[in-house]
Amino acid sequence: MRIFDPHIHMTSRTTDDYRRMHAAGVRAVVEPSFWLGQPRTSVGSFTDYFDALLGWEPFRASQYGIAHHATIGLNPKEANDARCREVLDVLPRYLAKDRVVAVGELGYDSMTPEEDDVFAAQLALAAEHELPALVHTPHRDKLAGTRRTLDVVRESALEPSAVLVDHLNEVTVGVVAESGCWMGFSVYPDTKMDEGRMVEILRRYGLDRMIVNSAADWGNSDPLKTRRVAETMLAAGYTADDVDRVLWRNPVEFYGRSGRLELPDTEAPEGAQDHELVGAGATFMGNSVLRGARE
Amino acid sequence: MSPTTSTTTADALEQVRTDPGSIDRHFAAAARTAAREGLDGDATREALLLAVPGDTAYVIGVVRRLYDHGDAAERRAVLLALPALDALDRPAAIGDGALPIVRDALRTNDTRLVAAAVGPYAATHLDDDTWRQAVLKVLFTGVPVEQVAGLADRADDELARMVRDYAAEREAAGRVVPPDARTVLAVTEGRDPHTRPHRAH
């Protein structure tokens, strides 16, 4: 089983996690830039962090046979601190980098006017740099925040298929399904979403545009939740090909829009459909498939 | 404005020749553009750097900025391009002006950067203490010692002592001494430490 975790904060995880993830089938990850628990107060803290996401962290991941990519952006929490606003000025430099596969995490935290401005400005940057956008939905006032998120996306230059709206649940999935955006789910030990509920949502809404992640970070989280969802899908009667679609081909299709994925040469499961995205060629959609990648 | 997927390597080189400030955006996208054209990313990045017009101080400024602003692959490409940028027949040869980025790379734990930092440029310009520490770091981090340029010319008695101590520490712990440590010791045997050549500038 091959797994692509499309949202995981590896900076906060140990090398033991990389080992366990590889053993569980994880071969590729996307690490969105976000806040670090402790608020930052200057642009320099951000550039050192972004540099780590494009330097040390991919190197560390490669030691354990995992391909690491990043999304870069000014997160909604820190968008509210005027001292961090200069981050917008350095973003174009980062959005030009290899392995930067989206702008993100963007979106709302407290739905302030500052968050409105920073969100819209970064969607414009995504369009300019030919990148998709990863959008976080707020923990508080979630449905209203999700609706407002979709309004801002509609007013942007990005088409809905270039936007992944994340951290959805039973209450917010419906409006995102109707919008044409991709639907992301963060499967956590206690909060947001669990694997049983996840499979119910897949049953109700189908597998199109569905993205499942562990969003593991410095909080109570589990980097193997993607694998647990795969097992729960199989136990519920989904096929190995269905699992491959949700946990590999869907995130590859979404982030592959960037043309900047660098994937290991993985094996599709028996009977896999849609060979275009199975990863058979040396390149597809402008992305690289690395032959002989370290296993 | 970033280069889009329609920008070619030839376009990028031409723009850098006439507008050297454009190298920042072309350098970041160079490996993707090169891959689409069947070219090598590192060679393309070296060509972009060699295309920068201007005097020595200006070229050094570009080299250091691209390294500081680069991701790991860009930083590695800058390090690999240093010998070409320092070629004696270049009017704006950089001399030892890029040593700060070599020292930065040697402080990292990324073996790709460490390996790229111990090339011919380091052999020519790095001071003895830093160079010896770099060789020891190569042994520690498992970078193949063949990556160290000028090893036979620069290895001296002090390096031999450091490597012998390293080997003794490994043996005391019951750990394997890497064969590369023996290689370094072998090249220092029977050598006169005072005949080490240094390039004049």
Q: Using DSSP, what is the number of strands of chain B?
A: 0
Uncertain regions of chain A: pLDDT < 50 for 5+ in a row?
278-282
Structural class of chain A: alpha/beta
Shape of chain B: elongated
Number of helices of chain B: 12
CATH class of chain A: Alpha Beta
Largest interface: A-B, 21 and 24 residues
Average pLDDT confidence of chain A is: 92
Radius of gyration of chain A: 18 Å
Structure summary, number of beta strands of chain A: 11
Structure report:
The complex is a heterodimer of chains A (295) and B (201). With 295 residues, chain A is α/β, with parallel strands linked by helices. Chain A has helices at 15-24, 43-54, 56-63, 76-79, 87-95, 113-128, 142-155, 173-179, 195-205, 225-235, 240-255; strands at 3-5, 26-32, 67-72, 100-107, 133-136, 163-166, 182-186, 210-213, 262-264, 283-284, 287-290. Chain A has an 8-stranded parallel β-sheet, sandwiched between helices. Chain A is globular and about 50 Å long. Residues 278-282 of chain A have low confidence and may be disordered. In chain B, helix 3 packs across helix 5 (72-85) and helix 6 (99-107) packs antiparallel against helix 7 (111-117). Chain B has helices spanning 9-18, 23-36, 41-50, 56-68, 72-85, 99-107, 111-117, 120-125, 128-141, 151-154, 157-172, 179-188. Chain B has 2 domains: 7-126; 127-201, no CATH class. With 201 residues, chain B is mostly helical. The A-B interface holds A 51, 54-56, 58-59, 92-93, 95-99, 128-130, 259-260, 283, 286, 288 and B 1-5, 24-25, 28-29, 31-32, 35-36, 69, 71-75, 108-112.
Compact description:
Chain B: It comes from Terrabacter aerolatus. The complex is a heterodimer of chains A (295) and B (201). With 295 residues, chain A is of the alpha/beta class.
